Amino acid sequence: MTTNELLMLMAGIAISCGVFALLLVIYPRIRAGSSNVVVASLEAALQPFIFEAIMAAYRLSEKTVDQGYERLKGADKKALADSVYKLLPDRIGDHDITFVKSLVTRERFEVLVQNAFDQFDQFYVVHHAHFDDEFQDFIGQNKPAAPPTTIVVPPAPM
């Protein structure tokens, strides 16, 4: 073997080792990135269920007040919204629920519920003046025709 042939063989081995090392570094990142895309798409597909969970908790809170009970506390509403994880349908998008639940755990679902609520709450805080004005308009339009009559009972003579 001549020197030229030997140098070409060594260069080929060096390039092959470099490509192999590069693949060892890049492949795990590519693999992790693809699963992150699937999880992100599943979390996006869960958003309507998360919204319904939050609204159901608020509706139940209104029902307790309508029936004369104390309004549900935030932690109770959160627990109700989190319980929707058990009620998810058999399919989310194109995926079976067992696959969805293997990637989006109950704990992650609870975080997603909290994130959705925090996003709503931030919207409300930013626009609270608008909602306060609307509430005042509602009160103005729904005032009783006459103020309630107050009966004053004089004190009994001694």
Report on the structure:
The protein has helices spanning 3-66, 74-82, 97-103, 106-126, 128-141; strands at residues 91-92, 95-96. It has 158 residues and is mainly α. It has a two-stranded antiparallel ribbon with strand order 1-2. It starts with a helix and ends in a 17-residue tail after the last helix. 8% of the residues are buried.
Radius of gyration over alpha carbons?
A: 31 Å
Shape: elongated
> Average pLDDT, to the nearest integer?
86
Order of helices and strands: HHEEHHH
Poorly predicted ranges: none
Oligomer: single chain
Number of strand segments: 2
The profile of the biggest β sheet is: 2 strands, antiparallel
> What is the end-to-end distance?
132 Å
Helix vs. strand class: mainly alpha
Relative helix content: over 70%
